[in-house]
Design a protein that fits this description.
203 residues; TIM Barrel; five-stranded parallel β-sheet; 5 strands; 42% helix
């Protein structure tokens, strides 16, 4: 390791391994002193965490919550407003919209109900400020534009609601983008970049 960039790459790799192995915080608690020092120096961000809406009888052992984020030393997290691709019907879009907006509300409620521990971040500067204050910075992400059904203005509404990270497709094509895991059926599309996607990207 002869350069500063080598040192930085090593530090990132070490912290990444520690975080990957110990989301519960066990690895962080048992880490050697150098690894723990690296982890504490870095701003640790989990770039994708699913939001699981409560269901009767559902297990929560693998779900993220504030206690686990604290134990794992996570400074910032991107919670995903996600609903799966469904049929290209009004009922399908409505069901997915309800699920997505429910998750958006749950993310906002986490920050609203825990103002001493959590704050919504809208910029990179917000993330640094919030983490520097000892809170968990929450970025709101959006994954799968299926339920917008080609409505480009929907992204303006999501932005106004605090969304700052976006992924157009998940498993299944939609009006905005094709997926690397397309599904057969009425919701499947084959265009390299559907018209709404071109409008959104300005292509």
């Amino acid at each position: 390791m002869n350069t500063k960039s080598d040192t930085a790459r090593f530090a990132l790799a070490a912290a990444g391994v520690a975080l990957a192995l110990g989301a519960s915080g066990a690895v962080i608690a048992q880490s050697s002193t150098p690894a723990l020092q690296i982890h504490r120096r870095l701003l640790t961000l989990d770039s994708h965490v699913d939001v699981v809406l409560p269901k009767p009888g559902a297990s929560t052992t693998s779900d993220a919550d504030l206690t686990k984020l604290r134990l794992g030393g996570v400074d910032a997290v991107v919670f995903a407003v996600f609903a799966p691709t469904g049929p290209a019907t009004p009922e399908g879009y409505a069901a997915a919209r309800t699920e997505a907006l429910g998750k958006l509300a749950a993310i906002k409620a986490l920050a609203r109900d825990n103002p001493q521990d959590v704050e919504i971040a809208h910029t990179a500067a917000d993330v640094r400020r919030i983490a520097g204050a000892g809170k968990v910075a929450v970025l709101i992400g959006f994954l799968n534009a299926y339920w917008l059904n080609g409505d480009v203005s929907g992204f303006d509404r999501l932005y106004a609601d605090g969304v700052r990270v976006a992924g157009l497709a998940h498993a299944g094509n939609n009006a905005f983008a094709d997926s690397s895991r397309p599904r057969l059926g009425p919701a499947s599309r084959t265009a390299a970049c559907p018209t709404p996607g071109r409008r959104l990207s300005g292509a």
